[in-house]
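To close the section, here is one more complete example, presented without commentary so you can practise reading it yourself. The ligand is 4'-deoxy-4'-aminopyridoxal-5'-phosphate.
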Amino acid sequence: MAGEEALRARREKLLGRNMSLFYEDPVHLVKGEGVWLWDADGKKYLDCYNNVPHVGHCHPRVVEAICRQASTLNTHTRYLHEGILDYVERLTATFDESLDTAILTCTGSEANDVALRMAQAVTGKTGVIATDFTYHGNTTAVSQLSTRMPPVGGYGGHVRHVPAPDAYRPLGGEGGAAFAAAWAAKVEEAIASLQESPFGFSALIIDPFFANEGFPDLPENFLVPAVAAVRRAGGLVICDEVQPGFGRTGTHMWGHQKAGIAPDVVTLGKPMGNGHPVGGVVANSETLNAFRKAFRYFNTFGGNPVSCAAALAVLDVLEDEKLQANALDVGAYARQGLQNLAEKHALIGNVRGSGLFFGAELVLDRAEKTPASDIATRVINGMRERGVLMGKLGIHQNATKIRPPMPFSKDNADLMLSTLDDVLGGL
Ligand code: PMP
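Output:
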């Protein structure tokens, strides 16, 4: 314990104050393997939180690919190299054929930054619409969109926020097509407002799974009317796939495919390199070439051979170990387990999600759906004490965030569920 306090003090001295740290009793991790993590005292944790080690912590094939390429060559992209070409070919093959080119970056924030400028290059406008409970990254440009970490000095006049969709408390009070129409009407209002402004309308940027917003179980084709409105107005649809991408939802490789929409630009990050910093932007060649012509973009580290080797190994493992199918199977099993717990614990108001991105919204009473945000914090800390790492998120910060590495098994789900049962029972 004294050691932990010294580490915290050193951290604050060297890295500054207000740097976020999970849990009342922070975890000091020293090792990872598959879905497991170990702390400095040798305690083992089941990782139900981390989506970056997508194919499992320290997957040997990814480690081997990184080591092999790092000991051969690592340079920027101003030389000819097959690595980036082999990767982009494999990556774009997983998209609709209109999305056939890519720019590689190091982070999801950079990818969204590029996507906004692509929309600007194509439309000549800068007005952007995002949801009012989103996060798209940390650059000056994209932090303008993110209501979860509002920018100092407020939002630029070019940003309009629409309500984050919440199927548990649907806009207008009704579900189904009425909910979709009500949301599309909000998007249309925002488009009109931007068209009347000096900025004009360039793009709607959304995570098609609305992960940070609380991963609502949206009605089928929910996004279709809003996307149609964007197209009518000559804007681009940007899908931020940093969270739902790479098969996490189980049903589809990409969140926009699950949502039944065809975006103009897709942005990628977190799981792409299994922890190696790789991000990217996928678009059709016309859009990408308009961007390159307007902005002459270069990224020193983006697309380097080591990053591409890591990212290619992730696609190989995903495919060979059938991890998308595993996400579908284990996710459905675990959600059913949460439903079963809901019969016992009135605190669980709503169980939702898809594949290995799911959770329960905790409420003080089911009729009023009053968010149990503080209790959610206690639950997350209680889970950590018992060796299961998860988080919380959503508009009311009362939904458990369960988003483990993709090799998560039914046995792992059972351990998570029995621990949660124990923690909820002990409240
Ligand atoms: N988009 C979404 C949806 C995210 O959740 C995040 C990170 N949490 C980002 C973009 C930013 O990615 P990065 O931290 O790699 O810049």
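Once you have examined the tokens, check your reading against these statements. Residues 323-344 form the longest helix (22 residues). The pocket of 4'-deoxy-4'-aminopyridoxal-5'-phosphate is lined by residues 107-109, 112, 135-138, 207, 212, 240, 242-243, 269-270, 279 (CB under 6 Å).
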